[in-house]
Specification:
The complex is a heterodimer of chains A (about 150) and B (about 120). Chain A is α+β, with helices and mostly antiparallel strands. Chain A is about 30% helix and about 20% strand. The N and C termini of chain A lie far apart (about 30 Å). Helices cover about 45% and strands about 25% of the residues of chain B. In chain B, the strands form two sheets. Chain B has a five-stranded mixed sheet with strand order 1-2-4-6-7, sandwiched between helices. Chain B has a two-stranded parallel sheet with strand order 3-5. In chain B, helix 3 links the parallel strand 6 and strand 7. In chain B, helix 1 packs parallel to helix 2. The chains are: A alpha+beta (about 150), B alpha/beta (about 120).
């Protein structure tokens, strides 16, 4: 939790099990907060996509081989300046730099491997902790058009 | 199928597939969609499938993965897949991932229907 790159000051924290309705409720809660802080539709689209990808990765890859009831830990904070959300799984982690580039011609027909690149494309900042089991997404208002 | 997430119809030999849901994010739904379209592909000798996104607001990389799997299966049978009615925000996802280079994407289902004939 002390990793400065992925820490969120003043965050609300929740443990989340793999239950679609609970995942949807969490994302809707974060987006409703963002909307109440006047983040626009493009921002909300970007946030939903990136958060969805991060949560899917945590359960699907991070928790591969673990008890399906193992929860992930989520922290989020919404301010006038930015929306921040951190997602931490209980897996062994991975090395983001080792991921192949899904946009290369030889990888275009592969059905997986686009989640992290979409997070990076749609958020202002994406940081992983050293272990690679925690990611912090940040959408800064002044880094985007709205 | 009473719980189908798709509307499937035949239009002059082209199978038109439309989504019931506005968000194509849920892994279970995506798997069900994949299986339903795969069944259509398996039934056709040369599958011609047009997928309309007219109702769709959000999709995930898992949904893109399902589309790629479907495209690969259609190509294995020398068929054709065309996509249409994609919201500009979602089209940007195709551009960012460069999947606009992999798929045949049209503004309208009418344009896509014409492309099948050419």
């Amino acid at each position: 939790m002390s990793d400065p790159q992925t820490h969120i000051k003043g965050a609300t924290a929740i443990d989340l099990v793999f239950d679609r309705s609970k995942v949807n409720a969490l994302i809707d809660r974060v987006l409703a907060l963002a909307e109440s802080h006047a983040f626009g539709s493009s921002a909300l689209f970007a946030m939903r996509l990136a958060i969805e990808e991060a949560i899917t990765n945590a359960f699907e890859h991070g928790h591969a081989g673990l008890d399906p009831a193992t929860p992930i830990h989520v922290e989020y904070a919404v301010t006038q300046d930015a929306v921040e959300i951190a997602i931490e799984d209980q897996g062994t982690g991975f090395t983001p730099s080792s991921l192949p580039d899904p946009t290369l011609l030889e990888n275009l027909s592969k059905p997986s491997g686009r989640g992290v690149m979409l997070m990076r494309a749609y958020m202002s900042d994406v940081h992983f902790n050293e272990q690679g089991n925690r990611v912090k997404l940040r959408y800064a208002r002044n880094a985007h058009a709205n | 199928m009473t719980d189908s997430r798709l509307r499937i119809s035949d239009n002059g030999g082209v199978t038109l597939v439309e989504f019931v849901d506005r968000n194509i994010l849920d892994e279970a739904n995506i798997q069900a969609i994949n299986e339903e379209i795969t069944a259509v592909i398996e039934q056709a000798s040369v599958p011609k499938i047009l997928i309309s996104f007219s109702n769709v607001d959000h999709l995930s990389s898992a949904a893109l993965g399902a589309l790629i799997t479907i495209n690969n299966k259609i190509r294995e049978k020398s068929g054709a897949l065309h996509l249409a009615n994609i919201d500009p925000q979602i089209y940007e996802v195709f551009v960012i991932t460069r999947l606009n280079k992999l798929f045949n994407i049209h503004e309208t289902t009418g344009e896509a229907q014409t492309a099948f004939a050419s």
